[in-house]
Design a protein that fits this description.
2 domains, 81% helix, single chain, 5 helices, mainly alpha, 88 residues, extended
Length: 88
């Protein structure tokens, strides 16, 4: 397997970035498909989150974002706190 493919498999952001051209091409080929493509994108993100976090954490994140708040998983919160401590 090429190094690029190995890196894409390890990095979820690269997966999402690789999906963007597919969405753009599909939206041009099939007019009105933007809703379906949006739903597919959301499902991909949720699938990734469920794979790497608990279902309860994903549900809590959805509720918080729906209320207009931001949400960080406990692991991300710890990393942000460590980063902020280093700045001081």
């Amino acid at each position: 397997m090429s190094p690029l493919l190995k890196e894409i498999r390890k990095n979820p952001l690269l997966w999402l970035l690789a999906f963007v051209p597919v969405v753009l091409v599909a939206s041009k080929l099939v007019p009105g498909s933007h809703t379906l493509l949006f739903v597919m994108s959301v499902l991909l993100i949720i699938a990734y989150l469920i794979k790497h976090t608990s279902a309860g954490c994903v549900c809590q994140a959805i509720r918080e974002v729906h209320k207009g708040n931001t949400f960080f998983s406990p692991a991300i919160s710890k990393r942000l706190q460590k980063r902020d401590r280093k700045k001081i």
